[in-house]
Amino acid sequence: MFSFPFSNQDFLEPRCVWVNGPVIVGAGPSGLAAAAGLKEQGVPYVLLERADCIASLWQKRTYDRLKLHLPKQFYHLPKFPFPEHYPEYPNKKQFIDYLESYANHFNIKPQFNECVESAKYDEGCRLWRVKIVSTNGSTRSEVEYICQWLVVATGENVERVMPEIEGLQNFGGEVIHASDYKSGENFRWKNVLVVGCGNSGMEVSLDPCNHDAKPSMVVRSSVHVLPREIRGKSSFELAMLMLKWLPVWLVDKILLFLTWMILGKIEKYSLKRPSVGPLELKNTQRKTPVLDIGALEKRFSFSFSFSFFFFFFFFCSSSCWLMRN
Ligand SMILES: NC(=O)C1=CN([C@@H]2O[C@H](COP(=O)(O)OP(=O)(O)OC[C@H]3O[C@@H](n4cnc5c(N)ncnc54)[C@H](OP(=O)(O)O)[C@@H]3O)[C@@H](O)[C@H]2O)C=CC1
Ligand SMILES: O=C(O)C(=O)Cc1c[nH]c2ccccc12
Q1: Could you tell me the pTM of the whole model?
Q2: A Pfam family name for this chain (predicted)?
Q3: In whole angstroms, what is the distance from residue 106 CA to residue 101 CA?
Q4: Which of 95, 115, 119, 250 has its CA 20 to 30 A from that of 185?
């Protein structure tokens, strides 16, 4: 990497820096894995990260009791397994420690506090022009990286989504997003409304339950809830095994049958299953099945009252129901 001699920070134009290899955007698990792969092949690269640490989603925007909900063998990065003594479902701290050791092992040094503002492919010179704003304390500077390849590893869930809800500004309680939720400790004896029944919604509802709070949940559309494990085997692992021999539709049928054996009819929790099976739904609409880690057992009931003290929000698509215990 070198600066073009004709560029100069004193001019108004941002400084141009040629990168002799790919620019990777994002030092989360995927960005780190890409960097490690390139490092192993001796390919130079630049890894840009807008936060001041690796895996910032994991470090800064997750709740305390978070554990991976798939077994560790499905989360490890290439060529560096989890330590043997790690449990099957590592917790947040263990996962972050693992990522730190991964970066150290491959000697990956991301450029922190560098936020990509735009990335444009210049058809003329067949190069990417990646504009970044770099912050260092109160100093802010602009740089343009020029490279042949761009790896976008910014994550699927990086941007928080807050739905606009009429009248919310008049609500007297606290409203927070799931990414700011840490623990149910502060919610003891409170009524809590959780909006959204994804894995975040389900897990964050369970947490206040464990702190004597009273969570309720808004579920706007149908949802596939599967047990995290079926007879001691992760349902994800089971699904992946079956997919080696069976078509998706049949694996879906088997998964739903086994789920029914374990959880019973989901309608008894006032939830509704989509007409399309869980794997097909994931494949076609990117909608992740919810893995039950004990929330259903708490037997939420339903209400549409909005006089709750706390709100949590979870993010994405369709219709609405509500739960409380
Ligand atoms: N332990 C773990 O490993 C965990 C993993 N994850 C993973 O992280 C990813 C993100 O999960 P998550 O944060 O749950 O996000 P998701 O996008 O999976 O779920 C968001 C949910 O919020 C609902 N929703 C959005 N807007 C509204 C609204 N205005 N009113 C009512 N409901 C609404 C959506 O409903 P609809 O379906 O209608 O769009 C959806 O059910 C997933 O891949 C998940 O598996 C998450 C938590 C824990
Ligand atoms: O955790 C995620 O993001 C997943 O996508 C999990 C998942 C995808 N397909 C499945 C089938 C059965 C159990 C879990 C999953």
Answers
A1: 0.88
A2: FMO-like
A3: 9
A4: 95
